[in-house]
Specification:
Oligomer: homodimer
Strand order of the largest sheet of chain A: 2-3-4-5-6-7-8-9
Largest sheet of chain A: 8 strands, parallel, barrel
Helix content of chain A: 40-55%
Strand content of chain A: 5-15%
Shape of chain A: globular
Structural class of chain A: alpha/beta
Distance between the termini of chain A: 68 Å
Radius of gyration of chain A: 22 Å
Number of helices of chain A: 21
Chain lengths: 501, 501
Amino acid sequence: MSKLIQVTELILRDAHQSLMATRMAMEDMVPACEDIDKAGFWSVECWGGATYDACIRFLNEDPWERLRTFRKLMPNSRLQMLLRAQNLLGYRHYEDGVVDRFVDKSAENGMDVFRVFDALNDIRNLERAVAAVRKSGKHAQGTVCYTVSPLHTTAKFVEMAKRLMDIGCDSICIKDMAALLKPQPAYDIVKGIKEACGDKTFVHVHVHSTTGVTMVSLMKAIEAGADCVDTAISSMSLGPGHNPTESLVEMLEGTGFETRLDKDRLENIRAHFEKIRPRYKEFLSNIIGVDTAIFDSQIPGGMISNMESQLKQQGAADRMHEVLAEVPNVRKDAGYPPLVTPSSQIVGTQAVFNVMMGRYKVLTGEFADLMLGYYGETIGPRDPKIVEMAKAQAKKPSITQRPADLLKPEWEELRSAAIALKGCNGSDEDVLTYAMFPQVAAKFFGTRDQGPKNVGKDPAKAAPPASAPGQPAAASAALSGPVTYKVELNGKAHKVVVSPA
Amino acid sequence: MSKLIQVTELILRDAHQSLMATRMAMEDMVPACEDIDKAGFWSVECWGGATYDACIRFLNEDPWERLRTFRKLMPNSRLQMLLRAQNLLGYRHYEDGVVDRFVDKSAENGMDVFRVFDALNDIRNLERAVAAVRKSGKHAQGTVCYTVSPLHTTAKFVEMAKRLMDIGCDSICIKDMAALLKPQPAYDIVKGIKEACGDKTFVHVHVHSTTGVTMVSLMKAIEAGADCVDTAISSMSLGPGHNPTESLVEMLEGTGFETRLDKDRLENIRAHFEKIRPRYKEFLSNIIGVDTAIFDSQIPGGMISNMESQLKQQGAADRMHEVLAEVPNVRKDAGYPPLVTPSSQIVGTQAVFNVMMGRYKVLTGEFADLMLGYYGETIGPRDPKIVEMAKAQAKKPSITQRPADLLKPEWEELRSAAIALKGCNGSDEDVLTYAMFPQVAAKFFGTRDQGPKNVGKDPAKAAPPASAPGQPAAASAALSGPVTYKVELNGKAHKVVVSPA
């Protein structure tokens, strides 16, 4: 009897986030839900990441209503979300009480599996969210963000997994957001985790397909003992997205592993999204095929398009080469953070500033915060000279405690502000929407009763692809004005305005 | 020290054959030749397959001149070609003397490695070509066409490889033209060949990427001892083409295997073809992403588009489903031939006839020939009732000898006919061009002095993709009129005209 390899289907979250800027409307997903529900997946990722933001910013759709609809349409499935730990689904640290509320409400509305990650792999940033998930009786998946640096060894990743299990995680996810995870490290890390944490530890592997090697990495991870892998239905796979679900099923034939997924259901899902995909042509990533330059630059594709647009706006598109060379320096100076939202944007923008104005002549507010410990601990030491510059510029000390420990209870204040908004229904869910995205929420509450808006178009009428479509919606939006840089920390806004010399 | 994994780069032949209907002009390849020559490939596939046909049919380019140019531009490289054994580069069996001449002239003009295959895996069809290559002092690579059927076992493939080594092949290629080779059989077959033929046997693996699993198959083949694998530079990879060269290089890091290719050269090659590719938009395959339905239907993508266009021309596009279900039946009745040019077209067209007119109410001339042994032996028995029908319709007996044994020396006749043509330069090369494609050659000789024609276009001006662009040029052309079916065997033309009832 072959070993069962479980599968998480990504079509309803990361697949359309990666391939079409998170723009897919709920009505384009609904017809596939019955087949998804009955295909035999271990879980269905369908919420979190940029979906919440995209719902209220672009689709006039209540993200909580989306969650409840998924719950109703997929009664047999574990629903899964991606949670940025203490950042929840926003871009700042939240106070613990807000974290608890968010997790409670998500569980209550139907979420089953919470994949919790922190951009710096700082365990302290995950602890509260993991505890909240455990308290709600749901599945807490602790995440190891995979990256490459002289300090990121197999032993370090295994050690982090061990610590995640120690704080009470139900399973471990190895998250490779930039398709950097090659077959051998995939094997070694999974093997290492199974040895360190015990054979029964449920190990889940998430990879993107951008570099063309990660289907092999999934195979090696499975050989090393991985229990579950993430894929996306083929008609919404590859490029900056994920490996195709059907290919995974076929790949395992005769290997002693099998998915036991229902192939007829998979074909129905495939056919549905093949019809839907062209409606979002305007938002489709223009990365087709593979990009292996990432291995040398360690810069994810979406980050490159961001930096390109920043340089273009300053009339310096020809300096991209210098910026690409500068990114690894900035990353080293910052103690080798993984490059994932928000650290990828922070490091990338600082590299642009360094090239345009001289190295560290100006620090962005976020980069200063990163250097001072306000995002948490990095794996490596941060350059002491630049830490001093950050102190001087930001006029605040460096910290070593958990960043959220500096925050005061904020629920009541958030609640008062939210219910004062026109169209707010007074529910905790609405307060949480306001807490995540105050400005966008205000606008959304006012227009919500007009109902969801489908931004997909008849393919014949669609415009050519946007310039940086691989990016999560919110990230692109936040960086649309690179010269004016806004930093929001603990509810206080800082602004850095920089003009080319 | 890691084991060296050799690589054959496919960009100059199979990559553009699979992705852009073999239309790439020589002038678009020339600027990349120095980098290709110096990147460290074991060989550079650059001739054969449909390139010869496309040169004279579409590009007004002398294929022999193309070969000589490659020879001059890549002095350090083994040049490699794909040869359809006794069919050479045409679509009929040639008499042995013509086979000898073709191989001699190819060697003389600069070819180093001859990959010889037969669509039915009938060793007798390969023997003469392999002997001719050996006599010329060049590298004879014997090919096992991979396919899936109840009779195609690992043991059978290994046995065929053993027989190929016994007739004097210098190496073995496992050729997976439809991306059906999954990781486990890839491992088992390579392992089996190494055990049966000795560890020193040079095993080369060729796969397409259509189904999304074959990068993993390359990994498993390498683990089993494969010495050399085929890939295409990333900017001309994936879809119905091949796995990306750069991804292969990266994939092997830390595994105990390495390619030692020059990554800077690879980047130059990639960047060159990234610029060239959009010029051929009009011919680009519309298969993007993967197609795993092939595993169940065992019907390669290009064959499906062909059958679709045949059905459409008869106003029966809605019967595709029945045709897809009929193909495996026809294949079984014919003794399970691999589906590759020309057997894929023969089986596919008969399936269309069966659905449109009733099972075997009319046999195509080619299908009758296949049933009577005129293409060679198949692995399984052919249905005796249909063999009798074929005898009655074709008015000839079934045969068991090597088909080419029925042919009389034909060189002098070909020579006389060729040199009588306007523009023929009297060389053996021109006679061979005439022998391969008599009608097209006649036209080509007349226009040759106008020089090569580049059918690539400024992308802004290019038309939308053609309907069946994954197909080799010649195959599409040969099947453009499915209702009128022409059979040419031993120089004699048969015509079957069929109208829907």
